[in-house]
């Protein structure tokens, strides 16, 4: 199933624009685009919302017929329990996280212990925890951690764009992580020469116009057969002013949805 995530609304929800979208408004925009899934991910206001505000957002998602997934960082059992409670409130079946979080960098032995503790409740609730691929942790170590914990409710959120900064080739990460993938982040990426031809900028691109071999990823993971959702994200640099940036972000989302719907 195709979904949109908070990173598809990164600038639209940013304080750098005059009237940033709230969570419910992002839900409504998602539904207007004919999309039935939204991943609330790394959305800082979520943990500051009151119980009444959270209940209202969950109720609106249900009214819109919108499925919800959640995303955070870290594997501390207490933190993962907080997100399990939020998942239950939103009827979410998946929580994405990362092994490391700001100020929290466990050893892999510690991470395995934390995950075993937290996953008891995830297993009982039928909620999947998907750990994302990214540059701070080699994908081989991530796969080894998932296999070591050995829970049917633990898998990988595959985002090959992130791992390039760790000098891993996206195709290698895809092949290595495909058997354990439970969620996919879809965004394109490219290198561009910096002004003066000294160095490169690694950044986002409209889906289908960058270096991401999306057909190869689909072939390796087979998301439709396995019921794996694909969440649209962007790495869109600031475009100089709010209006241009927001318009470009909206255009990139339209491009991504057209590409995904045209390449099933």
From TrEMBL:
User: Is DNA repair given among the entry's keywords?
Assistant: no
Coiled-coil residue spans: none
Report the domain of life of the source organism.
Answer: Bacteria
Task: Enumerate the spans annotated as Xylose isomerase-like TIM barrel domain.
Answer: 86-254
Give the matching Pfam families: AP_endonuc_2
Which keywords, in A-to-Z order, does the entry hold?
Answer: Carbohydrate metabolism, Isomerase
Q: Which InterPro entries match?
A: IolE/XylAMocC-like (IPR050312), Xyl_isomerase-like_sf (IPR036237), Xyl_isomerase-like_TIM-brl (IPR013022)
Q: Which PANTHER family match?
A: HYDROXYPYRUVATE ISOMERASE (PTHR12110), XYLOSE ISOMERASE (PTHR12110:SF52)
Protein name as annotated: Sugar phosphate isomerase/epimerase
